[in-house]
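Input record (one chain):
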Amino acid sequence: MRGNIISYLEMCQKEGTSLQKGMNFRLKGKHSVILMSVRPNAPYKDEVKEDGAVLIYEGHDQPKIKGVADPKFLNQPGGRGNGSLTENGKFHNAAQDFKAGKKGPDIVRVYEKIKAGIWSDNGYFHLVDSWTEHDGNRNVFKFKLIAIEDVEDESMAEDLRDRFVERSRIIPTSIKLEVWARDGGRCVTCGAADELHFDHIVPFSKGGTSLKVENIQLLCARHNLEKSAKIQ
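The corresponding structure, as predicted from the sequence alone:
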């Protein structure tokens, strides 16, 4: 569920693989997974726009190889010398095929690093566009993803590829950090420090905002389920 606070190990268990890369195209032939961060010291310039409905994700650099220049001054690669595609190239081709009307949008699950040891499951997105731009040093890939509705049955996530669904909103990182500090990393109802979730006090579906600290709180899984979509 979108907003769950999750550990790295739990992410790997959920996806059934070791997430050693930030970009993971069509894991086991199904949805893709990306790891993002908008923290000041993050290695890539990811952005959240349109009040949390749109994510602009930066592609990844060439791996560091002995004797090779700093990857931050090299164009991000779309392919390899042997003719195979990098993750950048795979995501780019999928986005361009969608734009050309050749297929539905790829489904991408997004996990966001909030701070050391703390990740947030930002839910599912449609991959709808991609391009390259110059960042002052080199050319980088950019990918546009649109947040979509939560998927109650994750086995049905792939059904979203061929149809557009209602847009959703992710909670901005700055709000998450402020709520985490205010609530002391614990459920506001019972004080539990595990299985936490960023919860809308007034649900988004009922007009609640993701953009104000006053409307977001930490709840444990039990109290989040008890609350459901009721306004308290």
